[in-house]
From TrEMBL:
SMART domains: HTH_XRE (SM00530). Residues 30-82 form the HTH cro/C1-type domain. This is Transcriptional regulator, XRE family. Signal peptide: none annotated. It comes from the Bacteria.
């Protein structure tokens, strides 16, 4: 196959619509600058220490960039564009329900959450959140994922924060995430949050046996002047928003029944302190 300045002359690559998404524009920018220089994917790959197949996926918008690759692309192509936009591309790849969850949390008057396995996201420390993300399918995007989770928490520090009521399982308190130091700091964070007037935290003790909240985590968002919504957790970014009245009613009952078997706040604080001191 004939070549011109390193670019294959044969079947042209599929066109990229730069207006279809941020990822598509990012990829279109790579291809445009690469072809302007007459470089093949292999030649650009040699300059940025990436395989041609990886770059091809970036150009087609089907692969998420990271900071290191973005900086290498800028160095090779003489721009600052990629370092300035890679995080926006990653944020765009967050699931639509996850983005909607954050937006609705900022509008909520009351947030009620039931989490049987992990600390609720709005109460996680940065290190705890990082350990959770690193254990899952989004570990290559850990910096953006953690930054987004920390951004979610700004709702609790604004001038008029929502009322937050969280039911956790004792298992979530005892599961050591990220190592002893990280977990101890996480428990200290919970103790500090419990001192805030708009935060209520209660724990279901292990000896409570079965209760409906064991099935999985969820949060219910109540608003002023509009119908409530809920977000139901799911593995690997499969969580989803719920607006069906019947489903919301079922989640309401699940939350109430779970809270009914939880310890009072004073006993909850004592349990958290005891677990922290045992670490």
């Amino acid at each position: 196959m004939a070549k011109t300045k390193g670019v294959n002359v044969g079947r042209p690559p599929n066109p990229i619509d730069p207006n279809s998404s941020l990822a598509a524009r990012f990829g279109w920018k790579i291809r445009t600058l690469r072809e302007q220089r007459g470089w093949s994917l292999e030649e650009l790959g040699n300059k940025v220490a990436c395989s041609a197949s990886y770059l091809s996926r970036l150009e087609r918008g089907v692969k998420s960039p990271d900071e290191a690759v973005a900086r290498q692309l800028d160095a090779a192509l003489g721009t600052t564009y990629f370092s300035e936009h890679w995080q926006l591309v990653l944020r765009e790849r967050l699931s639509q329900p996850g983005r909607a969850q954050t937006e609705h949390e900022f509008e909520a008057a009351v947030i009620r959450a039931c989490m049987p396995n992990l600390i609720f996201g709005l109460l996680q420390t940065e290190e705890y959140a990082r350990a959770i993300v690193m254990s899952g399918p989004f570990r290559n995007n850990v910096d953006v994922m953690v930054a987004e989770r920390m951004r979610r928490q700004e709702v609790l520090t604004r001038e008029h924060p929502p009322r937050l009521v969280v039911v956790l399982d004792e298992v979530a308190l005892r599961r050591v995430v990220g190592g002893v130091d990280v977990h101890r700091a996480q428990l200290e964070r919970l103790e500090a949050e419990m001192n805030k007037p708009h935060v209520t935290l209660q724990v279901v003790p292990a000896d409570a046996g079965e209760y409906p909240g064991l099935v999985g985590g969820f949060e219910i968002l109540s608003f002023t002047g509009k119908a409530p919504l809920a977000y139901v957790e799911g593995p690997g970014g499969t969580g989803h928003m719920v607006d069906s009245p019947s489903h919301l009613a079922a989640l309401d009952e699940t939350f109430d029944l779970s809270r009914a078997v939880a310890l009072p706040t004073k006993a909850t604080a004592q349990m958290i302190r005891q677990i922290r001191e045992e670490l």
